[in-house]
Amino acid sequence: MLPKSEVKYIQSLSQKKFRDEEGVFVIEGIKMADEILSSYSHLVRAVYATEKWIVKNQGKLTNSISVHELQTFELQKITGLSVANEVLVVLNKPTSIKFVPDENPVVVALDQIQDPGNLGTIIRTCDWFGVNQIICSPDSVDAYNPKVVQSAMGSLLRVTIEYKQIEQFINDHSMYTPCVAVLDGETYHDFLFPEKTLLIIGNESRGVSVSLRKIATKAITIPRRGEAESLNAAVAAAILLSKIRG
Amino acid sequence: MLPKSEVKYIQSLSQKKFRDEEGVFVIEGIKMADEILSSYSHLVRAVYATEKWIVKNQGKLTNSISVHELQTFELQKITGLSVANEVLVVLNKPTSIKFVPDENPVVVALDQIQDPGNLGTIIRTCDWFGVNQIICSPDSVDAYNPKVVQSAMGSLLRVTIEYKQIEQFINDHSMYTPCVAVLDGETYHDFLFPEKTLLIIGNESRGVSVSLRKIATKAITIPRRGEAESLNAAVAAAILLSKIRG
Question: What is this model's ipTM?
């Protein structure tokens, strides 16, 4: 039986404040647990799972991992999903890797992205195209939010995500050309992306903030052929990344 | 005061069964209500809104629309959102437009798409790129699911979505070349999309079903440069559409 204090502890990790204090986050589900235990087991603190899952995955559970066998109704108490999966893992946030411009021809900057699904999808898309560094403005959604984790999957552990003012990054790294994605810029087809590109994607409803538009050297657009008012932020990021890194 | 029966009626519309029986669906929020009332007011059956919203939008509310002024706590009872917005609209599903191949160089087919956010995003992306016809396999998520509506926005009323076997569409429309998006096909950069393309996007975890892969004439791939296991289905659709229709 899982003690009440531990139930409360895991529940508290749905909030950013407690994730930050503890330096941990939660992943759920067989597929993601499998990826984490295969490639990132050094980050795993604790596993909460059904007997069936534990028997099947015994070989991956090193001594440093605290393993808790739970009944389904107990898992249901700690899950962030509507229906609990067979396994929930608490793991340490990865330590940030020092940013090396030479290894990053493209950096993606997100200006006040609010939707966790969008952030997760952008992280996964960056990972697909070999973009390893994302800058999020401090008022963006937290990358360890359970919904971000769910849509980013293992990519969350491969892409470094740093929360800081995008203006600060631009000041500190003048070798990058800041390019904003907007509705009225240069068509991206004909656009020759600079050798070092900082691709700036704006907020879901307001787009890129005025101050960043002023600083940006280039403004690029995905031309509209139909009638939708805008493209989803993750979709816009993906189309531009496929052009830069395709 | 909204009668209990009406509260129940609106709540029931969160389920596909009742939406189908009534031929209606629900949209919520100021932005979407504005778009619906400006361009599709002939579809609107009823509006449930705060006094403030009604005063502001009086000019758009024709006589055929049944308008209900509600207190915020009453709106909270009928909303599908966690916090009710100022306005909720019940409207008729648009009647399908007869499919004319001559007007549709590209048709998108979705094979068992399950995530409502993905379907909504794909509908909006199709609308952006001027693709007006989507075929969903019968076991795909319902296009009038509230979460699909929320991410598709007004595009749901401009793009025709038909639920039928994709194999059936291929049999009936031999002028279209069926192209599946897969992980091991021809690189999409070098791929010359046929004059009439049926772009088939697969299920989020299983990809395109084996039977459709066998029928498809072409298999295309977005090359991976990093380590993510796969691309999100809506992202893959968007990147390929940007290539075909960009």
Answer: 0.94
Q: Would you write out chain A's pLDDT as a tens digit for each of its 246 residues?
A: 899 999 999 999 999 999 999 999 999 999 999 999 999 999 999 999 999 999 999 999 988 999 999 999 999 999 999 889 999 999 999 988 889 999 999 999 999 999 999 999 999 999 999 999 999 999 999 999 999 999 999 999 999 999 999 999 999 999 999 999 999 999 999 899 999 999 999 999 999 999 999 999 999 999 999 999 999 999 999 999 999 997
Residues of chain B with a CB closer than 8 angstroms to some CB in chain A: 31, 35, 117, 121, 124-132, 151, 153-155, 158, 189, 205, 222-232, 234-235, 238-239, 242, 245-246
Considering only the top CATH level, what class is A101-245? alpha beta
d(CA B181, CA B220): 5
Under CATH, which architecture does the B4-92 domain have? 2-Layer Sandwich (3.30)
Q: How far apart are CA A205 and CA B28, in angstroms?
A: 16
> Contact B235/A125, CB-based, under 8 Å?
yes
Strands (E), chain A: 24-28, 44-49, 66-69, 87-92, 106-110, 133-136, 160-163, 177-187, 197-201, 218-221
Ranges in chain A annotated CATH 3.40.1280.10: 101-245
Domain with CATH 3.30.1330.30 in chain B: 4-92
Smallest Cα–Cα separation from B228: which of A130, A122, A131, A128?
A: A128
